[in-house]
Prior knowledge:
The complex is a heterodimer.
Chain A: H1 2-23, E1 28-29, E2 32-39, H2 46-65, E3 69-71, E4 74-84, H3 89-101, E5 107-109, H4 114-127, E6 131-133, E7 149-151, H5 161-170, E8 177-183, H6 186-202, E9 205-212, H7 220-229, E10 233-237, H8 239-252, E11 259-262, H9 265-268, H10 270-274, E12 282-285, E13 294-295, E14 299-300, H11 301-312, H12 318-337, H13 342-350, E15 353-356, E16 359-362, E17 375-381, E18 387-393
Chain B: H1 4-7, H2 9-40, H3 47-63, H4 71-94, H5 99-121, E1 134-137, E2 142-145, H6 146-168, H7 170-180, H8 182-187, H9 192-217, H10 226-239, H11 244-264, H12 270-296
Antiparallel strand pairs in B: 1-2
Amino acid sequence: MRLNKIILSFVSALVILFSTSVASFAKVVGDKIILGAAISLTGKYSSNGVHTQNGYNMAVDRINSMGGVKVGGKTYKFDIIYYDDESNPKRAAQLAERLISQDGVEFMLGPYSSGLTKAIAPVTEKYGVPMVEANGASRSLFTKGYKYLFAVLAPANLYLDVAIETAVELNGGKPVKIAQAFEQDAFSQDVRLGILDAAERTGSKIIIDDKLPKELNDMAATLVKVKQMKPDVLVVSGHTKGALTAIRQIAEMKVDVPMLAMTHCDAAKLSKQHGKNSQYALCASQWHKSLTYKDDFFKDGMTYAADFEKEFGYDPPYQSAESSAALLVFKDAFERANSFDQKKVRDALAATNMQTFYGNIKFAPGGQNVDKPMVLFQVMCDASGSCENKVVAPLKWASAKLIHPIPKWSDR
Amino acid sequence: MDFLVFQYPMITVQACLDGILLGVLFALIAYGMALQWGVMNIINIAQGDLVILGGYIAYFMYLYGIHPAWGVIVAPVIMYFVGIAIYKLVINKVVDRDLFISILATFGISILFMQLMNFAFGADVVLANSGYGTTMLFDNNVVLPNSKIFSAFISILFAVCLVIYMKKSKLGRAIRATAQNARAAKILGVDTEKVYAATFGINAALCGVAGALISITFTIHPYMGLPYTIRSFMIVIVAGLGNLPGVAMSGMGLGVFEEFADYILGTEFRIGSVFLLLVLILVYRRFKLSRKREYLK
């Protein structure tokens, strides 16, 4: 019994010691501003989770090496505590709780995907921890009245409505027939809502409205319908697997449709996996390296892409670019707030109005970025079969002219 | 929308053909499951994950510039040994136990495989391009990707070879004897331990073939195994154990059913309808069994 008591007191002493040492690890230590992030390093989102982490790390290194953050006349450096949320929303919420209440983090960066951001947002909101997130685009994140959530990206319902408007414009302002297939997850359904809005605005008719299952790897049925009913536009959103499956089966089944608009082409490395078959696909993107936005840290998109490639060995997808932008926003807000008080930082974030290499950033009351339009690029291949993504809309940044309608398979 | 099938009659033809080609592939996976279920009385929840692993073998061949169609030869060979290894490590410890224990054990293997594949190959959705073209029928109204035709053909080929092997070879006879009565087979000198290992290996090899075909026709992803397990489970339930033509028929039936469910109920109910059908069939079987029992009374 006595031995037990000794062990017990020893263990509790250790726990107390450990917890105090962890608590002192909090928010701003010495010259470090410590941010917390739960990121999907394993599980089904791990590839995009890593893109997110690389984006964060790249910006931290860059800001720190270029003078850091100046608050109250003192210079601070960024540091991030990462935890692996295993692509699991419950785990993400637990980790957010742990970052805030155990590690004492007072400022958070977002996880990857709308679903995980949705799981974390109530926690950060409860503790009044400002969170700048770069990878949760679902509209439902911005309608809940969250005060401490800021997203540098455009909401999901704006992903593809440009495509519908462009199609109508090219049709001489007359309404078009739309076929759509969306996965049943928060993000894709938001993209769908955007299309419904656009269809209503332009008087267009939706003739096929399929919902794809989560385990989707065959959409032959949808494509057969498309083949028979001949819509003017086919819209597909089902993450990477949706994009890959659609391109494979459209090519195999020789489905002719004048316009094909999709999401997640970047992440799917469409042209790499499918080569010429992916040609003419229109893809919604938050960012493209050829955009001409500028800032002091990364200069512009092209420089960012080159630096990123040098460090990580691959071309940055937009998920990395927007993650880097989140850090720039935090730096700017800290300096304007000139304080580490969470309320003051939150107010400074809400008043953000800046340009980064990733785009303009200005938050609506709901927390979404309203100053950065989506871009559409089209996969274009040359005769030798090497393909490139070229921005075709909005016209302001277009580096190539949209090819419309898509040539028939029999003429290719 | 619901009456598309009637508005466009060609859709019916397309759905039937798509369904049959798909169903043959399902039947191959189900055949492996029926085999080891019959012989060892084990329901292998990891069946779908073995399929996906086979798919990754073909994918990596494709990545290194070998045509993925060769995967249908390489994948089963590798998967045979993977199967034997799983048997030696886990299955042989649960083979005589309760069905529930074996389900738990294979469920564990399934989770382990998913995570390992995710860890080793990443979470990206991948596919292997065969470069096979397309066959157009009925004035281009019905299209059949040649990759689907190829996969159906290979599935049938493997199934036929296996049937012959089971009938003619010594090991095949031993497997069938063990399935009928393991104790009697043991008494008569069959090394049942070896038979079990071989059966599990053959099952894994069949999964390997199916996986290679799936990577050529569809896409693969570490977490995509479960629907294949469910489908093969369902096919075996419908056909009954040891009923080979039954497995083939119910496989194709399921394929066609899925396609029509897609057109009539909508794509979102495609996999849901398979689950629903499974429940209905189980209820029906139970109902039939209880009738039989009453009759016996």
